[in-house]
Amino acid sequence: DGGITQSPKYLFRKEGQNVTLSCEQNLNHDAMYWYRQDPGQGLRLIYYSQIVNDFQKGDIAEGYSVSREKKESFPLTVTSAQKNPTAFYLCASNTPQKSLAKNIQYFGAGTRLSVL
Amino acid sequence: DAKTTQPPSMDCAEGRAANLPCNHSTISGNEYVYWYRQIHSQGPQYIIHGLKNNETNEMASLIITEDRKSSTLILPHATLRDTAVYYCIVRDEGYGGSQGNLIFGKGTKLSVKP
């Protein structure tokens, strides 16, 4: 089945450690996105990528890094510089299109990151 | 992008219609209204979207007022599985980049009760 796969479902980070969250899609979508969600809050955009080997900062990029070496994959690294990483992380993808098209994003099931 | 205002929570009896309102008084002519929902601890799921005409699909109906300043998502026969946070988002259909992003607020927490 086509979709977006995020792994792991749960992740624990120690102080000073970098951790990487995986996001893979087989929908042949051009664009991929990373969001962060804190309890009771909406989603905030961390990074996004429109095409391979290109990505842009979102609203809260500090303390995070990404890569887009393949169309299917958009891993997110939470670095030690991110002082409050505990959150629910969501990956999404779509193919932004020109007029008269749908701008629908498809989401993965999320990764819940906690600090030990 | 236009901002949206939604009630923080609503209750609905199982089997009844759930009507979720959204105000978007600053919406511009080329902005669409999108609805997503997020069941607890899952990723958001697309429901429906529209520009100015009412829309219906297998999940829901979307009613947009004539002046486009507000809309209502209707779940015609709510079930317990419809309990979720529902997000109303306005976005233009621009191509690529930040124009492809969606801005999620806090949404409306809908509780469907037996």
Would you give an account of this structure?
The complex is a heterodimer of chains A (116) and B (114). Chain A is mainly beta. Chain A is globular and about 40 Å long. With 114 residues, chain B is an all-beta fold. In chain B, strands 1-9-8-3-4 form a five-stranded mixed β-sheet, with no helix packed on it. A four-stranded antiparallel β-sheet of chain B has the order 2-7-6-5, with no helix packed on it. In chain B, a hairpin with a 4-residue loop joins strand 5 and strand 6. Chain B starts with 8 loop residues before the first strand and ends with a strand. Chains A and B meet through strand 4, strand 5, strand 9 and strand 10 of A and strand 4 of B.
Briefly characterize the structure.
The complex is a heterodimer of chains A (116) and B (114). With 116 residues, chain A is mostly beta strands.
Instruction: Give the number of DSSP strands of chain B.
Output: 9
State the helical fraction of chain B.
under 10%
Structural class label of chain B: mainly beta
Largest sheet of chain A: 7 strands, mixed
What level of helicity do the residues of chain A show?
under 10%
Structural class of chain A: mainly beta
Q: Taking all residues together, what is the mean pLDDT of chain A?
A: 90
DSSP strand count of chain A? 11
Residue stretches of chain A low in confidence (pLDDT < 50, at least 5 long) are none
What is the terminal-to-terminal distance of chain A? Answer: 35 Å
Structural shape of chain A: globular
Lateral arrangement of strands in the main beta sheet of chain B: 1-9-8-3-4
Oligomeric category: heterodimer
- Give the ordered list of helices and strands of chain B: EEEEEEEEE
What is the global morphology of chain B? globular
Radius of gyration of chain A: 14 Å
For the largest interface, the chains and their residue counts are: A-B, 34 and 26 residues
Parts with pLDDT < 50 across at least 5 consecutive residues of chain B: none
